[in-house]
Every structure is written in C-alpha cells, then in structure tokens.
Amino acid sequence: MVSVLHISDLHRDTGSALTTGSLLESLRLDRDRYVNDGFQKPDLAIVSGDVVCGVASNDADSDRALKAQYDEAEDFLIKLCDLFFGGDRERVIIAPGNHDVSHPHVLRSMTAEKLPSDAGKRAILAKQLAVEGTQYRWVWSDFALWRISNPECYKQRMEPFATFYKAFYRGKREYSLATEEQYAIHDFRELGVVVATLSSCCDNDLFNRSGRIHPDCIAGATREVAVQVRNGRIPIAVWHHNLAGGPKDSDYIDGEFLQSLMDGGFVIGLHGHQHRPQFLQRRFTADGKRQLAAISAGTLCGGPDSLPVGKKRAYNLVRIDIEARKCAVHVREMKNDAFSMPVWGEAYVPEFSGSSMEFTLDMQLLAVLGDSAASEASNQDVLGDSAASEASNLLGQQRERTAFEVAQKHPENEWARRVAVEALLRLDDWAEIRRFCATPQSSTELISLIEALYQLGDKVALREFIESEPVARNSDNAVQQSVAAARARLGERR
C-alpha cells in the first residue's frame, strides 16, 4: 500500500495570515487524527502547482516580492519534508501552476500593437490570435492588442520557479526553461510507483490563461516510464490545470492529451487549479479499454475569495493498493472558519456521497516480463498474462469467441478475466456472462452481471443481487449508476 499526500494551490504569500508554522501544525495534527483512524502515514507528497500566489506588476519591487514568495514556499516545503519524510526531499514531487509564472517577465517581454484599420488584416489577425503558440495576446480589460516582442525574456518567465526548484532539491534536480523539456520523472521502485510531472503552463501567462502541455513533454514522459510500467510500476501523471470549464472560461486544459498518457500506460492523473476536489474517469476512446482516473485536489491555502461557492480548503490522501491494483481518494477539508488556524477533518463530497471514492486501476499488463522482480512471478501468472495477451490480440481480430475460450482458462488472472468479459460483452452472451461473473472480481464484472440479469429477464435475481452486500458496499461511482439504472428498470425508486 502506498499513501500519497496530494496538495495543490498553496499560493504562498508573505502577506498571508496563514503562517508556515500554523499550516504545518494543522497538517501534523490531522495526520495524527487519520493515522489513529487506521490510515497509513504518507509515503510521498505531490504538489500539483501554484506554489506561490504570484505578482501581477512590473515595478521595481516585483522581482523581489516574487522571490520572497518563493522563499516562503521553499521554507514550507522543506519543513513539510522534515515533518513527514525525515528530510528526504525526493519524497516531495512538485509541478508548476499558472501562478508560478513570473508576470513581471511576461510584461517585460511584450509590447502594445496598433490594431490594423483594414478589415482584411483584422480578419487575418483574428485567426492568428487563435493559433496555438501565437505571439499575440488580446487583453479584454484594456481592449488592446499585445505581442511577444522579446521571446527570450518571455521564456524566462519560469526562471523564478526554476531557481526555487533547484534550491529545494539541492541542485540534484533542475527545471528547464525550454518548454519542450519541462517534465520530470520520479521513480520509486521500492514503492511500486513512478511519477511524471508535466507543465500545463506552455504558452501560459496573465493574458493567455488556458493550459497546454508541450507534446514533446508527454512523449518524453511516456517514453521514460515505459520500462518502469513494463516492470509493473503504477504510473502517475501530475499537471496543474483542470480538464473542463464553463462556456465563458478559458483557464483550463483540453483533456485530449489524456489519450496520449493512457496510450503510454498512465492510470492516475493528479491536478489542481479549480480549488475543489473532483474525481473523473476518462476512457481511451480509440479502443474503449484503457482509462485514467483524474483526481483534483482543493486549494490548501487559498483565501475565502478564491474558494468556489460551497467549497472549503481541502487536500487529498490517495491510497494505492499495488498488489490489488486498486486506489482510493480521501478528501480532507477545513472544518473551522479561522483561515489563519485551520483544523482539518473528513470532507463531504457530493459526487462521492461521502469523503472518499474507491476505484480499480485499469493496468494494461504486458506479457513480456523484463526485470528481476517480474521474473519472480509464478509460472501461473506468466501463463495467465501470456494467455491474456493472446486473447487480447484475438479481440483485435474480432475473433471474440476464440478470445473468450483462451482467456477463460485463467480465471485467476485479472487481465485474462478482463479480456474474457470484454469478449462476452461484444457477443452479447448474457448467459455466459452470468456464469463467468457469478462471483464478480471487479466493478466491471459486477456491472456486467447486473446487465446480464436484466437482459435475461431474471428480475428476481437482479433485485436480490443489487441488494446484496458486495453491491451495497461497493462505492465505485459507475457501479452505483448501474444500480440506479437497474432500480429504474425494475420500477423502483430509492
């Protein structure tokens, strides 16, 4: 079991009433509380961006003010590391957020442009504004056009963060100012996880608020974690921006990049930015099989004006069961109103119907086992993985019945069972699904059995099953939606 302290949106600011001492003590007391409740102490801390509050001016003191914020953030994270991880700074994993972009550098790199009087030129300019990586910015507050006239200065907008980053890791890690190199890999072989941090601040500044990750960063991350994934490590991606926004919002990231992450084997994504906890599962639409659990943390230090309506300061505890390939996110929120002296406890998240959400990690296991740890697997596991690989290839050839016959010979193998169920669903073989999934081994099998009982017209068995203990205690959101649909089909209301 691996326990991750997921914090985000620290917004450290020298003028904040929430001091480092008060914040650390509140986290220590809450750790004692959840450990007493049976939780494991965190093995890692992941910071998903907005380390500092940032400054929006370009006056004589702006650089000094920004450095002071980073000094405070560094002090907090060092003391957090000492408190939680015995001073091992590799256990604290940091990704940048939009507040970590130096606005003084942005302002110094730009010049105001005159709007062309010719309608045709204005139309061309409008298209250029919409192009990814454009040098132009439209500033609605000034109703004015700006252009990046000094690209080198613009690139330096991540320099204060890079200086902080290098200092925190004592020079063992450095943060590149080249956008195509702004990712990092943190491998924890002893824990069974590998973490890739990605900057969602490519082209991001105070005038262009949307998030974007440079494609070379995603390619580099998937390439570098490939060996660890093949050797059984659970891959986690970290970025800052949330994946959706309202019709008038622009400060979020297009979730299309998740397909590339999932194609590279990533199964967990951690982010922040929206200042509220959230859990999403997004399927890889190309084959409908792989999925990534996207988990958002609330803001750890945001003031009352930064909180969404009805939300409080919050952070996550993410618990990963390596052997069972299961995960749970537990949300802790501030329970009092004294923003300078927070007290934390279990949150209530409406979409969770409580404080936590559990789910299965959709790992695409590989038949070729490469390292010494994998070679110690039992012969039965190797045979099961090999059969699952063969069955998966048969599915790709639309030979569903043969795929099922191959996969069902290894019912103890999680991957083989997944392929077997997928084959039966494609065949609409509800009777065989009922037999094979009689004792569901996963949420997918549980949902498949609910559908099979309905399709076979056995309403008595369906009603008994959705009232059974395995279903009642399953907190997977997809399972609960399936149960609700079954009740509606049975004409029940709950």
Question: What order do the helices and strands come in, and which of them pair?
Answer:
Layout: E1 2-7, H1 20-36, E2 44-48, H2 62-85, E3 92-95, H3 103-109, E4 110-113, H4 119-130, E5 136-139, E6 144-148, H5 151-155, H6 159-168, E7 183-188, E8 193-198, H7 215-230, E9 234-238, H8 257-263, E10 268-271, E11 278-283, E12 291-296, E13 314-321, E14 326-334, E15 344-346, E16 356-360, H9 372-375, H10 379-396, H11 400-407, H12 414-427, H13 430-436, H14 443-455, H15 459-466, H16 469-472, H17 477-489
Parallel strand pairs: 1-2, 2-3, 8-9, 9-10, 10-12
Antiparallel strand pairs: 1-13, 4-6, 5-6, 7-8, 11-12, 13-14, 14-15, 14-16
Report on this structure.
- This protein is 38% helix and 17% strand.
- It contains 17 helices and 16 strands.
- The strands form three sheets. Strands 1, 2, 3, 13, 14, 15 and 16 form a seven-stranded mixed sheet that branches. Strands 7-8-9-10-12-11 form a six-stranded mixed sheet, covered by helices on one side. A three-stranded antiparallel sheet has the order 4-6-5.
- The chain is globular.
- Mean pLDDT is 89; it is low at 365-379.
